[in-house]
Amino acid sequence: MTPAQLMATRAFPVARLPLRRALLPHVNRQLARPLSTSQDSSRIGNKWRGFLQTLGRVTLVTVVGGKLVSAGTFWYITYKDRNPGPQLPFDPSKKTLVILGSGWGATSLLKGLDTTDYNTIVISPKNFFLFTPLLPSVAVGTLGAKSILQPTRYVARHKARQVSVIEAEATNVDPVNKTVTFADTSPLRPLEPTRTIPYDYLVYAVGAETQTFGIPGVKERACFMKEIGDAEQMQARFLDCIETAAFPGTSEEEKRRLLHMVVVGGGPTGIEMAGELHDFLEEDLKSWYPELHPYVRITLVEALPSVLPSFSKELIAYTERTFKESKIDILTGTMVKGVSESSVRLKPKDSEEHDLACGLVVWAAGNKARDISRNLMAQLSEHQKNRRGILVDDHLRMLGAPSIFAVGDCTATSYAPTAQVASQQGAYLARLFKLIAKRDELARKLEELSNANDGKDVETQKIQEAESLAKQIEKIKLKPFHYSHQGSLAYIGSDKAIAELPIFGREWTSGGVATFLFWRSAYISTLFSLRNRALVAGDWMRTKFFGRDEQRCNALARLSTCMTAPRARTDASWVPRSKRP
C-alpha cells in the first residue's frame, strides 16, 4: 500500500470522529428519556395477560381435578355399597342377640352395633327400613316409594360379622324361657310355618299400631299414614276421587264431595299431609284438571284446642295463618264420631253432631300397643301396669325382664313417640351392648378361673387374677339413657316449613321458605345411605321440573280399598295360616 492510500484509510475514521462526538449526547438523551405511554401499557398488558392465563390454567385444573375426585369418590362409595366384603361367621361362643323390628330404633341399633361381640338375628315382617317423616310425600307422588326404603340386608351385609335377617312376624315372646316364636308371612307356605329360637338378649322394637279409639268405620274406610302400603292406598284412593269427579255427567254436589279431603290429626304427620295435598292440588291438579280445581277443599280436624301442641305458640299461629292463606280449613276442638263411605261424622265442642261429606279421610291420630306387646305385658303383669306401652328402666330394660330391652313406640316413657327418640335409643343400645359384651367376657373368664383346678401351687396367682378381673368388672358402669332433643320440623305446604331448634340453651323458632330449604337439607342428611339421598334429591328435582305422578297403574289401583272395602293386610299385620286361602 502506498503512503497516499495509507493516509486515505486513516483519514476516514478521523473524519467521522467529530460526527460521533456530535451524536453521542443525542443518543444519551434518547436513552435517558422514559418509555412512552403506549410502551408502558403494552408491558403492563402483557403481565396482566400472563397472570390471567396462569389463573385460568389453575382454575381449570382445580375444577377438572375436583370433578374427577368427586366422581371417583362417588364411584368408590357406590362400589363399596354394592360389593361388601367378607364377613365373620357365627361364633358359638358368643351370645345371641335377637332384634324384633326394622324401624327407627332397630335400624339405628343395627347400624351402630359391633356385631363381632354377638350372634345377631333380626326378625321383622318387613325386610326394609322406612323413612317415615317423608311418607306424606309418597302419598301424593312427590317422592317414589322406593326412594325412602332402605333394605335391612344392606345394613346387615356391611357389618363385620354375619347378621341373620328373617322376614317373619313374631307371634310370641317368652321372657321366662327366653325364646321368640315367629311365623312366615309368605303365601308360599314353607314346610315349617313357625319357628322358636332362644336368645340371650332381646331388643323389642316392634313399634305400634294406629289408634282408632274404637270409632266406627275408621279401620275399614279411613286411610292410615304409618306404613308404605298405607301411603300407596291413600294415593290410589286420592287419584280415584279425582278421576271419578272428572267422569262425564258427575253432578256438582258429587264433585264437591269427591274433591273434599279430610285429614284427622293435628300433629306433625297430619299437618304435613294437609300441606302435601295442598301442593298437589295447586301445582298439578290446577294444570291437568283445571275444570276440577274450583271444587277442591281440604279440612284438618283436631280434637285438641290447637294444632301442633308440641310447638311454640308463634309457630302454631304461623301455621294457622299459612293454612288460612292456602284455604285449608282447621276445625279444632272437634271429635270424630264415625266414618262412612261418603262422609265423616263430627262433634264440635259447642255444637251438635253433623255429617261432613268428603271423598277421602286420612287418619293420623295416635298409636296403640300391638297384640304381641299386650301379650308380653300380660306375662309380667306385676311389673307392666301401663296399658299404653311397655315400661322400661333408665337403661331401657323391660321391667320384670332384665334380658329384654324395649325401644320406640312400643314403650310407655316420658318421651314423645317420635323417630328422633327411637333413633337415639337405638344408638344408645349399640353403645350399651358394647359395654355389656365386655363385662360378660370378663365374667366368663372369672368363672373359668374359679372352676379351674390347677393345684395349690397356682392358687395365689389365681386369686390375684380373680381380683383383677373383679375390679375390671366393677369399673364398667352402664350409664342411663338421656334423650337430647335436636329440634322439631314440620312441612306446612306452599314451600314453607316451621322449625323449633335448641341453640345455645334457647329455643330458636323459624318459619318460611328458608326454613323449608333447611327442612329438606336436614332430611337429606338424616337418610341412611347415599342411594336414598340420591333418589330423594332426584325425585324432588323431577317434581320441580315435571310435576307429580298422577297416572293410575293397575297394580296401584288394586290397592284402592280404603273407604270402599274392609282394610287389606299391610306389612305390619299378620294373617294366620288357617285363615289364608
Automatic annotation (TrEMBL):
A single MF term (Gene Ontology): NADH dehydrogenase (quinone) (non-electrogenic) activity
Pfam families: NDH2_C (PF22366), Pyr_redox_2 (PF07992)
Residues in coiled coil: 432-476
Domain External alternative NADH-ubiquinone oxidoreductase-like C-terminal: 485-549
EC number: 1.6.5.9
Keywords: Coiled coil, FAD, Flavoprotein, NAD, Oxidoreductase, Transit peptide
Superkingdom classification of source: Eukaryota
Coiled coil recorded as keyword: yes
SUPFAM superfamilies referenced in this protein's UniProt entry, alphabetically: FAD/NAD(P)-binding domain (SSF51905)
Name of protein: NADH:ubiquinone reductase (non-electrogenic)
Leading EC class: oxidoreductase
Gene Ontology, cellular component aspect: mitochondrion
UniProt family annotation: Belongs to the NADH dehydrogenase family.
Catalytic activity: a ubiquinone + NADH + H(+) = a ubiquinol + NAD(+); a quinone + NADH + H(+) = a quinol + NAD(+)
InterPro entries: FAD/NAD-bd_sf (IPR036188), FAD/NAD-binding_dom (IPR023753), NDH-2 (IPR045024), NDH2-like_C (IPR054585)
